Amino acid sequence: MSLGLSPNAPIRQIVHQHLDSLHKSRASALEQASSNTLPKTFCNEIFHEIRKQGKRSAEAGYAEIYQLDSVPRREETVEKVAANALCSPNPIGNRRPSSRGGNCEENHAAIHILISLETMDTSLVDLTAFSELEGILDKWVKQRQPQERKTKVKAKSKIMMFLEDSIKGIKKTLDLSSLGLKSLPALFHKEPFISKLTSLILSKNQLTALPEVICELWFLTTLNLFDNQLTSLPEEVCLLENLQILNLSNNKLKLLCEKIYWLKNLKTLCLSNNELTSLPDGICLLKYLEILDLANNKLQSLPEGIHLFKNLKILHLANNKLQSLPEGIGQLKHLEILHLANNQLQLLPDGICLLKYLEILHLANNKLQSLPEGIGQLKHLEILHLANNKLQLLPEGICLLKYLEILHLANNQLQLLPEGIGQLKHLEILHLANNKLQLLPEGIGRLKHLEILHLANNQLQFLPKGIGLLCNLRTLCVTRGSVTLFL
To answer: With the C-alpha atoms ordered 388, 392, 395, 400, is the resulting torsion angle positive or negative?
Structure first.
């Protein structure tokens, strides 16, 4: 339907004629298009705008146009106007009123309704595609094994909710987690997904691959694929250049795409619990990366370019097969947390002592026989885990860690502690069980904040008198003969 607007026709008359013709029309096709295409909440917003404008006293004549004989009839009219804005070759929403036709009040009122219709017309572009998208979803639901249909129906419901919300122009999350999905519908190269989807949660499914069209999600910033069955990182994912968070933990990844460096805005990369044996050199070009989780893989070495992670704050490398660390690790100037437990490290590079902002260092369950002399340079270190190694002596520098709160040294081969251990003024927990200690330094009595002291299974004949000065001590574990006592 075309209005055939004349430049000189009064705006009020044009709108009135258009509404009146729609009101009198009983075209079943138009009514059906209206009821099937437009969500009720959407129609109500437009209707509210019309009523609000109609109540203005200066626009009484304008109000009469819209005050039809009943509220349902008015709502029906608005729906028909909306449907016509969708179907008309010259939609009313695209027409701008001119101040030359009619008086100012009429034009002012007409502007509001036409702007509303124009906004609506933009949203209706999405609505026209909804039936097509629903058709694609229906075909997807019917594909493959019937036992998958139940989970796909749930996924369809969530996708349709996303489509409804997208009418309001909200960029939001689509959460399809924990549905047992083995495949995804081919929708992500279409609107509104392209422009409005910013977070896609696909965790805890059974996906073995991703659709190639996923690379069309230009505005995607978060992609969560935790706990699926992916064996490789699809190259298509590397095209999502606005991605900031990528979670691929708990999959079956054996290698990463060489082009992972294309994810130039990535800040968080989670790859724990996979089967990675090596990393591509390009991963070190992710210059904005702040969190890198590689725990529970099969890594035997790290890229030499690790020093390029200039913004890295958290690095998880526990439960791998690392035998050494690159010297460049000391150039990670912003690193705060470093997890290296359960590897095969025999020696730490001196460069590790340059991590001046490091707060947590986990090195338990390795094969370390000594620590770098410069370890005392880690001025901000609060937690140091060194249990289950082969340490025989501790460097005096360890006594310079003035902010250290927790020190785990259980299950080593320590025979002595540094005399200066009493300088650890903030130490709260000290684990020394299962070593070869024969005596403790008197300085241990200066640990005024110590709350827990584990000394079981050593070779101690007596405790220093200074133990009695530990006024905050709540737990003292020692061995008398073959009996471990908790005091």
So the answer is: positive
pLDDT (tens digit, 9 = 90+) per residue, 372-393? 999 999 999 999 999 999 999 9
Note if the bond before 97 is cis, omega within 30 degrees.
Answer: no
Question: What is the rounded end-to-end Cα distance, in angstroms, of the chain?
Answer: 90
Find out whether 484 and 478 touch, Cβ atoms under 8 Å: yes
Reduced to 3 DSSP states, what percent helix, strand and coil does the chain have, rounded to the nearest 5? 40, 10, 50
Structure tokens belonging to residue 349: 């590079």
CB 413 within 8 A of CB 386: no
CATH 1.10.10.10 fits 391-487, yes or no: no
Domain residue spans of the chain:
11-125, 391-487
- Number of other CB atoms surrounding residue 36 within 10 Å: 11
Tell me if residue 361 falls in helix, strand or coil: strand
Residue 79's alpha-carbon distances to 15, 36, 42, 53, 133, in angstroms, are: 15, 10, 9, 17, 22
Tokens describing residue 144: 């493959």
Task: Determine the Cα–Cα distance for residues 153 and 438; give it in Å rounded to an integer.
Answer: 68
Residue type, 438: Q
Question: What is the model's pTM?
Answer: 0.75
Q: Which residues partner with 199 through β-bridges?
A: 173, 222
- Sequence-distant (≥ 6) Cβ neighbours of residue 201 within 8 angstroms: 173, 174, 175, 176, 177, 222, 224
Coil, helix or strand at residue 306 = helix
Instruction: Give CA–CA dist 264/247, Å, rounded.
Output: 16
Kindly report, residue by residue over 429-481, the tens digit of the pLDDT. 999 999 999 999 999 999 999 999 999 999 998 888 888 889 999 999 987 54
| Token code pair at residue 437 | 């200690």
